[in-house]
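re the bet — no i am not wrong, look at it urself. input seq straight from the record:
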Amino acid sequence: MSREWATVGMEHPPLEVTTMSEQLPERSAAACLRAAVAAPSIHNTQPWRFRFDGAGFDVFADAGRALRVVDPAHRALHISVGAALCNLRLALAADGWTSRLEHPATGGALARVVAADRHEPSPSVRALALAIARRRTNRGPYDGDPVPVAVLEALRQAAATRDCRLVVLDPVRRGAVLALTQAADAWQRDDPQYRAELARWTTEHGDRRDGVVAPLFGPRPTSAALTLRDFGLGQPGAERDAARFEAHPNLVVLHSRGDGPGDWLDAGRALERVLLTAAIHGLAAQPMTQALEVAHLRRLLAAPGGRWYPQMILRVGYGHHVPASPRRPLHHVMLRSADAAAPEHSTAFARTAGGRAGLRYCR
């Protein structure tokens, strides 16, 4: 795992720093966890678990929420958890805490985030943290206007670390990626296991707190020029409008230098910085990952020489507002003991007399 953002909130000389002598307040911990679970995840599976011990957070993958057909190596799962890590640390920074990302001592955890010193957050950190609540996955049509060069550069800078980069596709490379996406989408649609998995994570009803609900499927494109994932494939009874999508979408591709679990976590953190920066600039965004989910097609997207590995393809542009995806309550994602394999609905958040979730320290 790279050491970029090893300490969050220290971009500028501190205005006032005090050494942490108390545990992270309960209210702050709960707010940071709410920010973490607002992160994007493949099919909105929300494949993360957390344990808070007063000084920091252990972050786990929830393998029971893995997509075994489109993500057998858990690459997208790790990217999703990485995005949650980014939000967790941003929320800490915006609340005035620096943090360290450590290799966990606890078996099974992917990472540990430890609150450190108090620090005045920078304007850029505040802006990114505020964008967490505004970020959406927008599967609707965009207006087709080009994204200004300065905005694309801001996205590129948001991703840029020693081990991650964002590439804005020119028309030639865009055409190649769209062709691979179309081939991958056709491959997947012909796979009964893919269709069954998609059906498990989609619903016509709005009573689920995970997965993709029908109002967020997006309309059906009126042409085949842009191949988007059809979330209605597993829910044929869902009513959907048809719409004309942009003929020449703005596409960007996120790469990492390595292609293992630590690299995927780093890619998830970079991805979330890109998405939050897009939200700040009023940009809509949608993953187009079909070509990354078919192994022989993903290899065609890798940089020559194998030095950079594609981790995410995003369509970006200007679209209409869409509602947020549902989220599970915090007590569904919290672990209450040192056992990472706690039951699905184990909780470190006890219900107070007033019905609100109160934090119970996990010793």
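see?? The first strand starts at residue 7 and ends at 8. told u. also Residues 55 and 76 are 29 Å apart (CA to CA). so pay up
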